[in-house]
Specification:
CATH topology of the largest domain: Rossmann fold
Strand content: 15-25%
Largest sheet: 5 strands, parallel
CATH class of the largest domain: Alpha Beta
Strand order of the largest sheet: 3-2-1-6-7
Distance between the termini: 50 Å
Structural class: alpha/beta
Order of helices and strands: EHEEEEHEHHEHHEEHHEEHHHEHH
CATH architecture of the largest domain: 3-Layer(aba) Sandwich
Radius of gyration: 20 Å
Helix content: 40-55%
Shape: globular
């Protein structure tokens, strides 16, 4: 088996199957730290945007898990190497899990993972309701700070789907938006993301991203929004919340929510 996108690599590890080859991670190269123990010695086959077909041929995989968005153009070439399973929406981690479990014969493992996820979400929903009482559900914005823009992820996004499952709500503008994110290129657009809580992702560790975030925090429009006013702006891990694309990443997201709630309990 070869995995050509991050969510497939995460999912393979979650299912207990070790690929013969994986593409490099977007950040913390060459493999996300949380996956390194399970993938020690696994061959790297290039970038997600440009996997090495020659390298894949040499590995002689029996199946290749690919992203239709990334790899549709090379699907005919991949199909000459091995069976190709295309995943349509890579941010829908449960679809990735279901498809891969069926192909790999790991249905029992998938069921156990789904049950574990369900238990954790029910537990956290109860904690959130107890902590915030009549204020629950809170409105939320999941913000990806980039060098020149801010992306606000919507309920249909990877991270947004978990916040939605936990019971968070989005403001009217975000509820009515289509797609997986709102892209804000200017500070004058900041009021559209106003909400009770901000979970903030720094898209990279570059100085330009950090400088952009500092400028945003210093701007009066940022400071007037509810989350900054009430000290409810929390930085979370970009790998788990955006880049991982799989159920193990989701478990790390839930860990972040647990830690946030632990800190919230101290604030009472």
């Amino acid at each position: 088996m070869v995995t050509l996108f991050q969510g497939a690599t995460d999912t393979a590890v979650a299912l207990g199957v070790t690929p013969v080859g994986v593409v490099e991670s977007w950040q913390d190269k060459p493999i996300y730290p949380y996956l390194r123990p399970a993938l020690a010695g696994v061959e790297l086959i290039g970038l997600e945007t440009q996997p090495s077909l020659e390298h894949i041929v040499l590995l002689e995989p029996d199946v290749i898990f690919a992203s239709r968005f990334r790899h549709a153009r090379i699907e005919p070439l991949l199909a000459r190497i091995a069976r190709v399973v295309m995943i349509d929406d890579v941010y829908r981690f449960q679809q990735t899990l279901a498809v891969m479990a069926q192909v790999l014969g790991r249905e029992r493992r998938r069921q156990a993972l789904d049950a574990q996820l369900d238990r954790r979400i029910r537990h956290l929903r109860a904690r959130l309701s107890r902590r915030f009482g009549a204020r629950w559900p809170l409105t939320v914005s999941l913000l990806d700070i980039r060098a020149t823009e801010v992306r606000s992820y919507l309920p249909s996004s990877f991270g947004g789907s978990i916040l939605r499952a936990l019971g968070f709500r989005w403001n009217k503008t975000s509820r009515e938006a289509r797609g997986v994110s709102l892209n804000l290129s200017g500070v004058e657009s900041l009021p559209v993301i106003d909400s009770d809580v901000f979970f903030v992702i720094l898209h990279s560790r570059s100085t330009t991203v950090a400088a952009h975030y500092r400028r945003l925090q210093a701007h009066p429009l940022w400071q007037r929004m509810k989350a900054p006013r009430h000290q409810q702006v929390w930085e979370v891990d970009a790998v788990a919340w955006v880049l991982s694309g799989g159920i193990l990443g989701v478990m790390h997201m839930l860990d972040d929510i647990e830690h946030w709630l632990d800190r919230e309990s101290v604030r009472v």
